[in-house]
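Human: My hope is that you can spare some time for a protein that puzzles me. I am handing you a single protein, as its sequence and its fold in token form. Could you go through the record with me and say what the backbone is doing? Take your time, and here it is.
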Amino acid sequence: MEGDRIFLNGKDVTDRIRLSDVTEAVSSVSAMKAVRKKMVSLQREIGLKQDCVVDGRDIGTVVFPDADYKFFLVADTRVRAERRLKEQAEKGEKLSLDEVIRQIEMRDRMDSSRDQSPLKKADDAIEINTSNLTIDQQVQRIIDKVESNPNDTMKESFMTEEETVEQVETENPQEPVIAEAEKKSIADPYDLIKHVTREQVEEISEEKEEIDEELSTLYNRTLKKFNDDKRVMGHVIRVGEKDVVVDIGFKSEGMIPLEEFGDKIPEVGEQIEIYVDKIEDQHGQLVLSKKKADFLKSWEVLKQKYADNDIIEGKIIKRIKGGMVVDLNGVEAFLPGSQIDVRPITDFDAYIGKTMDFKIVKLNEARKNIVISHKEIKEETLKEQREELLSQIQVDQVLKGRVKNITDFGVFVDLGGVDGLLHITDMSWGRINHPSEMVKVDDIITVKVIDYDTEKQRVSLGLKQLTPHPWEEIEQRYPIGSVVKGRAVSITNYGIFVELEKGVEGLIHISELSWTQHIKHPSELYNLNDEIEAKVLSIDSEERKISLGVKQLQPDPWETIEQRYTEGMQVKGVVRNLTQFGAFVELEEGIDGLVHVSDLSWTRKIRHPKEVLQKGQEVDVVILEVNTDSRKISLGIKQLETNPWDVIEEKYKPGSMAKGEVLKILEKGVIVQLEENVEGLIPMGDMSKKDRKNYTKAVKVGEEVELRVEKIDRDERKVILSRDDLIMNEEEKEIAKVIS
């Protein structure tokens, strides 16, 4: 060493030893006992010759335990990594922050756990957290501490070479460093201070080369004993909070994360089988794994089980897409959802934590994948039971079984190795919407074999067949004319199906709901599940049909209708509905009569009743006809007056003059309101558009006109007037009058 530069074999290595690859190897090399002893001796020798400031991970505890001042510097790992990253960048090295953090944490862990001079704070050291301090601030903090505790004289308790050897031997009593004969006491520590020449430095370097060669030989011998990807035995030498340190007889110990041991934490001195993952990783560390050793050991057992088609035990640990993950003594295997049981699984989570027997159905050596099945084991057990049951099964046989699965169309029942189908139509004599209304999965039910296909080995089951058919002696239980009660189970646009008992339903047709009401849909009167009282109208036992009626519970108002309403009678009613062909008028509750559109007026051509009537309007009507067979009453409004057409024909004879007011001007002609509430028509439908325009220009709506009558049209209820009169002058009109 010259000044602040460090030489190795005459070569300046000051900067080289600060690079990351050297830094990463420091912990591994410093863990060697021989290296550690030699370094302690060399450092103490330097300290005896002069005052010095020294830093290191065991300086205050091992190298200079009696130093005048001791400072233990700490900092946040991330801060240390950022500082190291900056130093390395200045030297041209490119590393990531995460990589530097990992290096620091690994070295801290190894230095703290090594047997030789581990990293720890001396009891009398002053701790300084430098996380938020610059270098200058750190130096000033140390200077302040020193100046506040001045000590002008050096301690006289320097350790002699003999004491140095004794301390190292105490740490490692099995390997004495210096023979007793070579020990010597030193009267004055300062006698050891001497000048070191360049030649002496070279001699020390040669000595180190000899040590390096010796260590290299030992190292190479060790490498011959171990290879990557191998299981070996090792001894546990320390159990920490996060790691277990294991000695396998290699140059250095290896560390295994504590989590790999699970609940089975080893004890110090215990011999365990571990897996050598790597002799050296990129940081020169021995990489061991307990988990991989256990995995490979279990894998060999599983391979043999697979080859022998043996059953294995495993624990279901979690659920994943498509199935479950099963722990087979350290090896995770995939259990497809379809291979858990012979019956479909609805609650997969209920199996988590269960220990079950399995068979390996697929093993991939390259990928270390295993697929297992529990279903195969159960199927083998059920196979014998199935064959025995199929040989004994017969139609009409009554059996017990477990509900295995429920679908919309029925229930699959496990009869003990054989599945039978209980169709929804064979579950009850009554109406059910879904099988789940009667049974649930895992129910034990009694069923009857109603069919057995020996070729396809299909078994059809029945539940309702265990009870008598409800239509037997139906006429005795429900005689015609009797009043019954039931529940509305279906409502259609043509009627209501009423359940009288399970398996027996009757139909109330919409026409049988009311004598008088015009019901468009049964839901106007009833809802599903309503209790309905009705009378039995007819029974067809062969077709299994029962006709019911509700209106028959009340007297038929039409039986006496002719006594209450006779032809020609004038009565009052309320307009309930208007249609294109007429108006329905309610005479009493439930009794309506129809006023046809042709019976609204003698003189007007009414196209729709709404021209003269409104819903809810009270009107006087005349009974025209009562038909009890068709239950219809014909009414008239115009019949309230005498037919005026005999008078009209007498008054408006062809050729006579008629006065009136123009009501409308249409394409087909001009409508004129005459006396006697009669409409006159000036026809123009057969004229050209030009001529029609000339004629209609001669009149205006509201204008009074006097025109000649050409003819009477009783069917159209119109008086036909002359169109030529519209364009005659007064003289021509007078002449026309005279002529007429």
User: Anything to note?
Assistant: The chain has 15 helices and 34 strands. Confidence is low (pLDDT under 50) at residues 152-194.
